[in-house]
Amino acid sequence: MRMNFFIERFGANGFLGEHLWLGHVGHFLIIFGFFAAILSFFAYASFERTKDQVWQKIGRFSFIVHSSTVFGIFILLFVMILNHWFEYHYAWRHSSQDLPMKYIISSFWEGQEGSFLLWEFWGAILGLILLKTAKEWEGGVMTVVGLTQAFLGSMLLGVYVFGYKIGSNPFILLRNEMAEAPIFQRPEYLTMIADGNGLNPLLQNYWMTIHPPVLFLGFASTLIPCAYVFASLWRNDFTGWVKPALPWALFNMAILGTGILMGGAWAYEALSFGGFWAWDPVENMSFVPWLLIVAGLHLHLVYRYTGHGIFSTFLFYILGWLMVLYSTFLTRSGILGDTSVHAFTDLGMSGQLIIYGIAYLVPAVALMAFRYPAFPKMEKEEPFFSREFWMFVGALLLLLSAVQMTFTTSIPVWNKVFGTKLAPPADVVSHYNSIQLWIGLFVAIFTAKIQFLAYKSSKIPSGIKWLTYSAAIAVVLAAFIAWGCDIKFMLPIAENISFLSPYFLFLFASVFAVVANLSYLIFIIKGKWSLSGGSVTHFGFGLFLVGVLISQHKKEVVSINTRGDNFGKGFDDKELVENVLLMKDSIYKMSGYDVTYTGRTDNKHEQVFNVNYRKFAKDGKSEVENFTLTPNIVRNKKMGDSPNPSTKHYLSKDVFTHVTAASDNSNAKDTTILSDVAVGDTFYLNKYYVVFESINPHPDVEAQDKDKLAVQANLKVGDLKGNVLQATPVFFIDVQHDNETSSHAFESEQWGVSFDIARINPETKQFSFVVHQKELQQEFIILKAIVFPYINLVWLGGIITFLGIFISAWRRRN
Amino acid sequence: MKKIHILLLVLVAVSIGVIVAMTGDYTTYGSFALSKASPKQTLNVVGYLQKDKPLKYDPKVDPNYFEFTMSDKEGNVQQVYYKGAKPQDFERSEQIVVKGRMDGATFHASEILMKCPSKYTDDQIRLKEKEA
Description:
The structure holds two protein chains of two kinds.
Chain A (H helix, E strand, L loop, with lengths): L1 H9 L9 H31 L2 H30 L6 H6 L6 H8 L3 H22 L4 H17 L4 E3 L2 E3 L7 H4 L11 H4 L13 H30 L6 H29 L10 H26 L3 H23 L17 H22 L15 H23 L1 H8 L3 E2 L4 H22 L14 H22 L4 E5 L2 E4 L1 H23 L8 H21 L2 E2 L22 E4 L3 E4 L2 E10 L3 E11 L6 E7 L2 E3 L7 E3 L1 E4 L3 E10 L6 E9 L4 E3 L3 E9 L12 E11 L4 E4 L2 E5 L5 E5 L1 E3 L4 E9 L4 E9 L5 E10 L2 H20 L3
Antiparallel strand pairs in A: 1-2, 4-5, 6-26, 7-26, 8-9, 9-10, 10-11, 10-12, 12-13, 14-15, 15-26, 16-25, 17-18, 18-19, 19-20, 19-21, 21-22, 23-24, 24-25
Chain B lengths: L2 H20 L4 E4 L1 H6 L5 E7 L16 E7 L4 E6 L12 E9 L2 E11 L6 E6 L4
Parallel strand pairs in B: 1-2, 4-6
Antiparallel strand pairs in B: 2-3, 2-5, 3-4, 5-6, 6-7
């Protein structure tokens, strides 16, 4: 028994080349760090209760120890992956030797364990900052942070308690994870593992390097406003938390928003989903906490300036964090398996995740109920034209948006709980759009007007005239944009009845938000940067919405197939088909573009396709656009092929192209046999002529052929354009081994031709050649091409929004 | 009662109304047998590709027509077509979810979601025929 333990632990059975120390240290740090976090939680809780400074010291000390272990684990996991120590399952499973540095970093968080660690890492850093800066709130806030760090740390424990596995240890050995594989019977097994499993080619993208860290910083920082709420409820002090929590909420909103938008940029740029947002469950569930935080932040401001809305502020911040946990549960429990493309696979930790949710939910409900009578109540009602009234309405709309998304995304949960067999809507996009478009429309209008209203006052402020002017300008501008981008003003809602199109109304509302906030910036606060945070944010958000509407509503699939099928009169939109076959070197007309597939390059792991786009002016002569896109298909034997799109970016639009399939020419060969050819002869192939120029009896050959008799044929190959290729196949006779013959063919990938010597007649000195020619005429690709107009407004608007939030956070940093 | 409370009540009522109304959009999981019984209903069928049956995809004839045979979890074998390009690595799929309805004797899938376990990974590729 004891012996087994040692063999298991220290490789006494003599496995060679393993670096077991790393796993032992790593697992020790995981367990030690977990208990340090628990200690910090208890110590801080006692400090908050007793105000005894000794507890504070213990809390601080144990949190610093905890953070050090987290950094240690972080470094160890990197060392393991960087060095390709494939004796560890995590390194083997997620990385391989040929990965460049940026993807090695990505493979760190490809797995659940690494991404929990990343989250815990940010939690530790935020905790250390709070420990320094939270002052009188340190006790309460750090209690919550300590508990959260313990929960996150437990996801890595990898220990069994009463037969239930708690957490998954990233330092587990490959030979333990797959113990039944026969390779592990051999002490030198490590030398037999050629390479790691590698990073999924879909994830081999620089966004995978930067999007997860930002997103997890967003998740980690969602805790902080919520932690202040818990601290405030616990202490029964409803005013002190308001100022210090505000910059955290702003920071959280900016970072989480940036992380989500980066995910959108990745989906748009690198994945073939055809857009930056697909209403996929995983996307929705990262967006829902953000909506709640945005609502919470506005209520937070209302509470700060008017004293109204303490209950709803608390509610939204708590809900924001609970939805982060719920989203973690959905994406990591495997429950979304049938409905989402990018959920994690199950690691058997869903029970743990549910317990964590309850661990916040129950105290939150209890504290809110217990403290409710003590909440400051305002006698006076919010005046109708006050800022706070409309902020409440806006927050409710955001809640409605979050509820719809959560409800539909939770379909698999309803099925589990109620035993139903529901499935997502037939048309997911219109299911969400039909609600979210209207919510977005009203949110945009509130975004436009809110700054012009004053807190606690029903008096119309004098600046309101600028709002009226802005609305007038927005109507004209929106009409102009709609005309320019061909967005219909009216849409039929019933027979013979048309009404203003919701798309046009949405466009107007977003343009209104842009113009109104711009005028507020210029005429009301007169460009004072310190006060500009809100208007800059709202201006950017309006711009973002304009971009979303135009780029999505007017997105045009240019590769609509009109060949093959004769669509005729009964043309059904649903049956439009978006893939087009392009034969090599033929010109296809697509929405004003002349598109030509000009050929491809075969690299080691990928095929790159060259697709040329040209557009001519109306006179048909002068060329206005000419560019070549290079979408590719990465061939990965283990994980399958994955196409990567290629996009031409213009200021006003993007032309997006991806290859869904390509002809496979490797087998299509045309073979010609040329018998008994003598020096000086010329012969003709399909596309080439060949001259048998001379024989070289002493060619340069490789070492293993030195002892053989070698003869090289010098062939001159030419095509009709005057290109010339020297082909030099070699023929060998092994005089030491019964005159066994062999040959070394000459191949040219570029010309798609190969020459081999089949036979030499020693008497006549005539040669017989075997010529393979690739069947190049058959080469084709299947292409999908989409034009996204004004997509840059989405990115620009997003960036300005987050800059505006940072301006606000900076102003309130103390 | 404050204005905001009335508004709150209205919004709660609206949300419940909307959510109930929107569940009408939801589809359900089912078998091919069920789909044949109610051909107008859009169903999600979970099943497996019949790898011994031929896959029909000839892009030179029509790059947007792909036909295959799959069996659902009850064992009903069904011819399925999809108006789009053949998904990359379709042959390797372990499990497929098709969303659509019967079109005569063939099942018309408007969306395919496939699971490709690459031995130790569990990756999915979702394909859409046409976005609205």
